[in-house]
Design brief:
Radius of gyration: 13 Å
Order of helices and strands: HHHHH
Number of helices: 5
Distance between the termini: 45 Å
Number of strands: 0
Helix content: 55-70%
Largest sheet: none
Strand content: under 5%
Structural class: mainly alpha
Length: 92
């Protein structure tokens, strides 16, 4: 099966700095596509997008493969989202 062409667009946006949090990927790629490619369902994918700390390492490695980027870059996107949300929640 061929990979969705939008993965390449997301890769370029990550590398250019336009995407800096994991959830921003889904402004350009439907979550259903990634969910299917990871072998999970949309409900779990939604939960993972909203609670990035619940990802398994295997899932993060698979996402890095789908996006054709270094897994450390995926971890950075997860980190930015997780700690960005924590900081926002403290102010509330």
């Amino acid at each position: 099966m061929e990979k969705d062409i939008r993965y390449e667009s997301v890769k370029v946006m990550i590398e250019s700095g336009r995407i800096h949090e994991f959830q921003q990927i889904f402004n350009f790629l439907p979550k259903s596509i990634m969910a299917h490619d990871l072998g999970t369902n949309n409900n779990r994918m939604t939960r993972l997008i909203n609670h990035v700390e619940q990802f398994t390492l295997e899932e993060l490695f698979r996402i890095s493969h789908l996006l054709d980027i270094n897994y450390k870059t995926v971890l950075t996107l997860i980190h930015n989202q997780y700690f960005g949300e924590k900081k926002t929640n403290r102010r509330s």
